[in-house]
């Protein structure tokens, strides 16, 4: 037993007589977690040092499972006061531990009669022993070592103390870590370069339950298995997400582009170049989840039930990871803590990251991005959440590469040497994107090829190439606002576009910047009308809102929408229905909107 294991065992008070006597020592034996130890203070003024006297002897106790501990933190009446230089023993007398009644648990303290009188008072005041919290393991205590000075005294010389007040005692079970296993059908086709033991070593002793992230991940995976495809719109705010769910969408997409533009923790408007603080997207994930939770609470407080699954899974943009594998590891943990159900990473160089529809994109070697995916998966495993991991490749349009270290990338390197800033020029196109998609497929749940145009033929070629080696591998597709849809496609093709993608295996489809465009266009239209006709313009908006109520829209009653009635109900519960300060009762919304 190490010194560290014993340091909390006991506290010995100071005897003025001992402090004056340089030859005085205090030798004490204490039973600790199944062993006996000799405790010898080097100096009564300094912390006690501990020295193991004998190896532990373990008894098997039926009915106790591994990890069971008892913590006893009693205040004893009267205090246990022992004479100086006297060996003493503390042992638990109730067995088995699991059946001990916390209110009647007893501890026996044994010691021989005092040898001398203290000049500072009665024998019972010479050395005070104050037992602190005593940690007792599931291992039964063995008897004292059979050596001089350690034998228990006759019963008539033993003092038995029990608590005279409610003890701070509990029979507890150490938090049991969830078993790490990768044999579930969920992980079919997923490769890990580490094993369960690695995950167990990296988990804390208490694994936090990330309910929203787990629920979102499991639901997203289930929906993709049950639906021809799951489609989503990019949400910029919590209220946009609420309206999406109210309108019937089953998933939320959170774009890093939109966070950069108008929702980042830097408080700036940025282009999509990873300029904002790295924890900005997790922050918006949390805001969206909080808004969805409030919508759930509002509806449930009104009717006692909910009419929809408010906690729609959120798929969040981790960009290029904001650094190396460790940055990706921490970012993934942040996404999970915020409640994201799915997260995507892209194979660009983080320090030069660009929107997929901009120029100047720089790829990292294939092997380097595999490490990013491994880091993200490891983070999810450590958090015990089956996060849906999406691997995006920008190789279809990226023309630069950081290094030729990976031989898989070399066939795409163009002749002519490096650029002035040290990058290799590479041949872009679908062939390069397919090669990378195949390399990433074992490490991700979905593969996303970022494209420059809405092209069903191109999408089919990519899907067939992936499925030729990885049958059934799920794919993702960005139905981007960066495409000029009407210029590229006719109305019939636009109408069937997502259905056809779904048939190819593109199980998650999304419009990345829908929130940005909806917010800006609707506000521009309102502001332009307001400039021309004043309140007539706003009245038209309000009339449109009332008309939308037939389709389930409720935000025209804005006080109710944000939870005023919910908190009125909280107030009523707190006051027993006697509150005179309820907000909705005399509101203009109640009087004019019929709430």
From TrEMBL:
Assigned protein family: Belongs to the isocitrate lyase/PEP mutase superfamily. Isocitrate lyase family.
Entry keyword annotation includes Lyase: yes
Record flagged with keyword Lyase: yes
Domain of life, per lineage: Bacteria
Lineage: Bacteria, Pseudomonadati, Myxococcota, Polyangia, Nannocystales
EC number: 4.1.3.1
Organism: Plesiocystis pacifica SIR-1
Membrane-spanning intervals of the chain: none
Alphabetic keyword roster: Glyoxylate bypass, Lyase, Tricarboxylic acid cycle
Protein role: Involved in the metabolic adaptation in response to environmental changes. Catalyzes the reversible formation of succinate and glyoxylate from isocitrate, a key step of the glyoxylate cycle, which operates as an anaplerotic route for replenishing the tricarboxylic acid cycle during growth on fatty acid substrates.
Catalysed reaction, written as an equation: D-threo-isocitrate = glyoxylate + succinate
Protein's recorded name: Isocitrate lyase
Alphabetical list of SUPFAM superfamilies matching this protein: Phosphoenolpyruvate/pyruvate domain
Pathway(s) where this gene product acts: Carbohydrate metabolism; glyoxylate cycle; (S)-malate from isocitrate: step 1/2
GO BP term (any one): tricarboxylic acid cycle
PROSITE patterns assigned: ISOCITRATE_LYASE
Gene3D superfamilies xrefs: Phosphoenolpyruvate-binding domains
Any one GO molecular function term: isocitrate lyase activity
């Amino acid at each position: 037993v190490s010194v560290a294991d014993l340091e909390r065992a006991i506290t010995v008070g100071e005897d003025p007589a001992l402090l004056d006597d340089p030859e005085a020592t205090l030798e004490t034996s204490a039973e600790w977690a199944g062993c006996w130890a000799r405790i010898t203070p080097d100096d009564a003024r300094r912390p006690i040092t501990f020295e193991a006297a004998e190896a532990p002897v373990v008894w098997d106790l039926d009915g106790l499972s591994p990890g069971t501990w008892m913590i006893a933190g009693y205040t004893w009446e009267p205090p246990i006061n022992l004479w100086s230089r006297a060996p003493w023993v503390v042992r638990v007398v109730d067995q088995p531990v699991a059946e001990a009644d916390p209110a009647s648990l007893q501890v026996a303290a044994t010691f021989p009669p005092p040898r001398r009188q203290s000049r500072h008072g009665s024998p019972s005041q010479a050395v005070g022993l104050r037992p602190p919290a005593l940690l007792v393991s599931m291992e039964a205590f063995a008897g004292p070592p059979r050596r001089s000075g350690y034998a228990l005294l006759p019963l008539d010389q033993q003092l038995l103390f029990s608590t005279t007040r409610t003890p701070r005692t509990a029979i507890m079970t150490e938090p049991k870590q969830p078993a790490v296993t990768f044999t579930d059908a969920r992980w079919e086709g997923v490769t890990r370069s580490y094993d369960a033991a690695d995950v167990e070593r990296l988990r804390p002793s208490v694994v936090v339950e990330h309910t929203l992230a787990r629920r979102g991940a499991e639901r997203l995976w289930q929906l993709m298995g049950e639906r021809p495809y799951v489609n989503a719109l990019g949400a910029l705010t919590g209220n946009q997400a609420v309206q999406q769910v109210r309108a019937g969408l089953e998933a939320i997409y959170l774009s890093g582009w939109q966070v950069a533009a108008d929702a980042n923790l830097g408080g700036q408007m940025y282009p999509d170049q990873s300029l904002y603080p790295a924890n900005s997207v997790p922050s918006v994930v949390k805001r969206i989840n909080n808004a969805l939770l409030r919508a759930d609470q509002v509806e449930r407080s009104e009717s006692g039930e909910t009419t929809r699954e408010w906690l729609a899974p959120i798929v969040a943009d981790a960009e290029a990871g904001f650094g190396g594998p460790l940055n990706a590891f921490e970012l993934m943990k942040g996404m999970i803590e915020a409640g994201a159900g799915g997260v995507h990473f892209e194979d660009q160089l983080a320090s030069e990251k660009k929107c997929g529809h901009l120029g100047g994109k720089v790829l990292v070697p294939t092997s380097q991005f595999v490490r990013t995916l491994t880091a993200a998966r490891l983070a999810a495993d450590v958090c015990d959440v089956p996060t849906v991991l999406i691997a995006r490749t920008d190789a279809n349009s990226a023309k630069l590469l950081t290094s030729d270290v990976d031989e898989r990338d070399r066939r795409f390197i163009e002749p002519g040497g490096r650029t002035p800033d040290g990058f290799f020029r590479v041949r872009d196109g679908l062939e390069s994107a397919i090669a990378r998609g195949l390399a990433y497929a074992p490490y991700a749940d979905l593969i996303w090829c970022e494209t420059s145009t809405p092209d069903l033929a191109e999408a089919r070629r990519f899907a067939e190439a992936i499925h030729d080696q990885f049958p059934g591998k799920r794919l993702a597709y960005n139905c981007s606002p960066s495409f000029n849809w009407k210029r590229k496609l006719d109305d019939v093709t636009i109408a069937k576009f997502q259905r056809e993608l779904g048939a190819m295996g593109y199980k998650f489809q999304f419009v990345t910047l829908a929130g940005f465009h909806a917010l800006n266009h609707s506000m521009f239209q309102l502001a332009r009308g307001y400039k021309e006709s004043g309140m007539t313009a706003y009245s038209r908006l309000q009339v449109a809102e009332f008309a939308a109520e037939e389709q389930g829209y409720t935000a025209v009653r804005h006080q109710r929408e944000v939870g005023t009635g919910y908190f009125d109900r909280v107030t009523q519960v707190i006051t027993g229905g006697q509150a005179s300060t309820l907000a909705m009762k005399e509101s203009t919304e109640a009087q004019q909107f019929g709430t």
